[in-house]
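Onboarding guide, step 5: your first structure request.
Type a short instruction followed by the sequence, for example:

Predict the 3D structure of this protein.
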Amino acid sequence: MTDDEILDRVLLYEGGYVNHANDKGGATNFGVTAATLGAWRNLGRKATSDEVRDMSRSEAIAIYKDRYITQPGFGVITDGNLKMIVIDCAVLYGPRRATIWLQTALGVSADGAIGNQTTTALAKADPKIVGRSILSQRVKRIHARVAEDPTQAVFLKGWLNRANDLLKYAA
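The system replies with structure tokens like these:
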């Protein structure tokens, strides 16, 4: 999968504008939160609900490419299916956590930053095994999140369905 194909898939998962009362990110559009949009636009504040709603798809893609591919260094992942899994994890749980999950799956020091140790292990690893390990860690985090905050149970089925759908990239 190319980066553009990955982002198309992520945007399908994320959908359009939502402002759910239990969503800790507040108003989102294409999965981009008010805080992320405000930071991206250098507003010095969170974006308003109207600014989030009116954000274009092309701006969302630019944010995703920068914040969830380029900045965390996910361009070093050459297997498109594994890259899909890692980027989707970064979108939902942050690039640092996605990197830690990747490093844990690779059996290297999990410091949350991609460096030589990670890239060397990545080159030798079976991407399918690594992808399944990452998704296993993700499902554990989903359950822990709901256990920590039962108000998040409203999202449980969707989060688990999304993780389950990603299994096809590790099959």
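Each response can be followed by summary notes, for example: The chain has a mean pLDDT of 94.
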